[in-house]
Write a structure and sequence with these properties.
By secondary structure, the chain is α+β, with helices and mostly antiparallel strands. It contains 16 helices and 16 strands. About 35% of the residues lie in helices and about 20% in strands. Helix 6 crosses helix 7 and helix 7 packs parallel to helix 8.
């Protein structure tokens, strides 16, 4: 994890000084404790002013690759947060095409790809990333975010300046920048437990969306999407389940192999569940020493799953570390608020903070099984979607009767009890599929929002 920040301005009233740029990177120093760097170009009559800042966590080419990093003549500069997993293959091709490299890391590969392919350069990248490229030849700034938005990137467009950073707190270091809560984003947060892209909790501050590209030239900002999931391009050549199994194992094995490219110690979060166990197992098959694995437990037995992690560790032969914590959410809350910058209500943030802290005492990078449930429909709600959709053929008046009758059922205080889940399913049978699913994942559904929102916001709850 690194941190980037910067600005481009063409109005003297919106100048970002060297001191402000320094404060912007200082505000995200926790993202990159190993090094910092800045590029500052004064505004002229012909060209805008430019400030690029970087905080580095060294993972690849630890001794080199300091940022901002430029091409051979320094006209193209980059600040980069993330990792390019296929950088070695890209580098070999670029060398054949005549490019000269001064470092051994992945950052410089992006610079030369931009030289070679222009704005199409992002199509060649495999990785997680958010970066800014300043093209001094074209007086052009390019902001890019990875396909699924793993790495954050915020920006703000003012009259005569564009500013950007990995975190909101960095942008708030700019003097006199407005700090007005976006009331619509409060409703988004109350619905989803977070503020979704491209919005933020503050008016005028935006997230660059996943697979988003922003190009600033001549004071004009253009936004585009450079990739989208190929949902409508099914591959129908596989005829047996074994074909899918073979391909899935091959894809996951290669993905893990590429993520093991590192010049610092690696480890893995291991809960003992399917996802983290699969990832850890694939790591172990490709390394010559035991994988460093990490899990935490809790004093309350119902929430303590360390025994599953131990079983997985013993089976895979990892070097396992575990700790029992008694989470004090109130004590941790100020720190979580400072890190997240925005309202965020996923309770997993608390144990994840403890787990990350313990893991960092041993390794610099940890692989996880995150998103396995979303990609492979592991959550119970996906089964509920199938059940409910099968009922859509039933006349709506019958489904309305079931929904009305559900209100008379008792409500269990247990979050995942069959009674509670069954009642929620029946209550939403009369709704269309999209509204039904939104109700299941919402904290405040449409009716609840209308009860707490002021009248002028009611139209936003429909």
């Amino acid at each position: 994890m690194c941190g980037i920040a910067g600005a481009v301005w063409w109005n003297d009233q919106e100048t970002v000084t060297r001191e402000v740029l320094q404060r912007m990177t200082d505000a995200i120093s926790h993202r990159g404790p190993d090094a910092e760097g800045h590029l500052y170009v004064e505004r002229t009559q012909q060209s805008p002013g430019v400030g690029l800042g970087h905080r580095r966590l060294s993972i690849i080419d630890v001794a080199g690759s300091r940022q901002p990093l430029g091409n051979e003549d320094g006209q193209i500069q980059i600040v980069f947060n993330g990792e390019i997993y296929n950088y070695r293959e890209l580098r070999a091709d670029l060398v054949q095409r005549g490019h000269t490299f001064a470092t051994d890391g992945d950052t410089e590969v992006i610079v030369h790809l931009y030289e070679e392919y222009g704005l199409e350069f992002v199509q060649h990248l495999r990785g997680m990333f958010a970066f800014a490229v300043w093209d001094g030849v074209k007086d052009q700034l390019v902001l890019v975010r990875d396909r699924l938005g793993q790495k954050p990137l915020f920006f703000r467009m003012d009259n005569g300046r564009l500013s950007f950073a990995s975190e909101l707190k960095s942008l708030l270091q700019i003097p006199n920048i407005p700090r007005v809560v976006d009331r619509e984003s409060v409703l988004r947060y109350m619905t989803l437990q977070y503020v979704p892209s491209p919005h933020s909790i503050l008016q005028g501050f935006e997230r660059l969306p996943p697979a988003g590209m922003a190009v600033l030239k001549d004071g004009q900002l253009s936004l585009s999407t450079w990739w989208s999931p190929p949902w409508n391009e099914p591959e129908l050549s596989r005829t047996k389940i074994s074909d899918w199994q073979e391909e899935l194992r091959a894809e996951l094995t290669e993905a893990v192999r590429l993520r093991l490219r590192s010049d610092v110690p690696l480890g893995a979060f291991l809960s003992g569940g399917i996802d983290s166990t699969v990832i850890t197992g694939l790591m172990q098959t490709q390394l010559n020493e035991p994988v460093q694995t990490f899990s935490i437990g809790f004093p309350v037995k119902a929430f303590d799953e360390r025994h599953y992690a131990r079983q997985a560790s013993e089976m895979l032969g990892t070097a396992h570390h575990e700790s029992v914590v008694s989470p004090d959410a109130l004590e941790l809350l100020p720190r979580l608020i400072w890190h997240y910058d925005e309202p965020y209500s996923d309770s997993s943030a608390v144990p994840t903070m403890y787990l990350s802290k313990m893991t960092r005492e041993h390794v610099t990078v940890a692989l996880t099984g995150d998103a396995g449930d979303e990609l492979f429909c592991g959550y119970d709600r996906y089964r509920a979607v199938r059940i409910a959709n099968s009922m859509n053929v039933t006349p709506k008046w019958i489904r309305r009767m079931f929904a009305a009758a559900a209100s008379f059922l008792p409500t269990s205080v247990r979050q995942k009890s069959p009674l509670r889940r069954g009642k929620r399913l029946l209550q939403t049978l009369a709704q269309d599929s999209e509204e039904r699913y939104l109700n299941w994942i919402s904290i405040f559904n449409r009716v609840a929002l209308q009860q707490v929102a002021s009248a002028d916001l009611h139209q936003l709850t429909h």
